[in-house]
Amino acid sequence: MTLPASPPIVGIPSCIRFVRYATFHCVNERYVDAMTWVGTLPLLIPAAGPSIDLHEVVRRLDGLLLTGSPSNVEPHLYEGGDSETPELHDPKRDATTLPLIRTAIEEGVPVLAICRGIQELNVALGGSLTQRVQTVAGRFDHRSIRSPDMDRNYGPAHAITLAEGGMLRDLLGVEDMCVNSLHQQAICRVADPLRVEAMAPDGTVEAVSMPSAAAFVLGVQWHPEYKPQENPYSVRIFQAFGDAIHARARRRLPLAARAAA
């Protein structure tokens, strides 16, 4: 019997948004489009925290994509003191993503963490954040220029240097590149399991990986999901993530399905 083929499932945690007095669980369509482009099925995970069984969710996943967001991780989660941006928090997302990350890594699920996602990855594994990097002496203002022209907002903002011998330099084949920049939170103390993969000239951590993880784990501070097919580095990042997702899906196929594939 030939079993029907089904695409691998990638979980994408949602953000909470309030629209006309109602609460919505939302994900920017760029992330959904990027995941369908690499042949996977995006599954939007509600920001419901402990009210859902995250172990059961992870058991069904072949990949986990952590998205950017206007919201910031709450500082009490990394002993960061009082909040400097109390209007920019999403506690339900925090309550969902942080345990979800730890569970996914424990279960060998490939993880790609983008912008807020790299910050969540770092906090989930024991690291800390700078709440407003633009206020730190010697640092750039990494925030978006906030133009109505999205190509300007997501255009190249500054250079980064990729770590010698790192996963990202090997994947992209370059020592330096330019990236966009749309954040104010940034990694401060890097979590012990993570390796720094790229830095901005001002010392801001721009990418991390987890060498000890059983699967692909990469976090980037920029936004490769913006028109990814037009940027060769974004193409390689998403293709590598997609390859890891498909590899996990093949390993999880029942023997009968594997024989029929």
UniProtKB/TrEMBL annotation:
Keywords: Hydrolase. Pathway: Amine and polyamine degradation; putrescine degradation; 4-aminobutanoate from putrescine: step 4/4. Pfam families: Peptidase_C26. One of its GO terms (molecular function) is gamma-glutamyl-gamma-aminobutyrate hydrolase activity. GO terms for cellular component: cytosol. It catalyses: 4-(gamma-L-glutamylamino)butanoate + H2O = 4-aminobutanoate + L-glutamate. Gene3D superfamilies: 3.40.50.880. Its EC number is 3.5.1.94. One of its GO terms (biological process) is polyamine catabolic process. SUPFAM superfamilies: Class I glutamine amidotransferase-like. Involved in the breakdown of putrescine via hydrolysis of the gamma-glutamyl linkage of gamma-glutamyl-gamma-aminobutyrate. Belongs to the peptidase C26 family. This is gamma-glutamyl-gamma-aminobutyrate hydrolase. It comes from Stella humosa. The lineage of its organism: Bacteria, Pseudomonadati, Pseudomonadota, Alphaproteobacteria, Rhodospirillales.
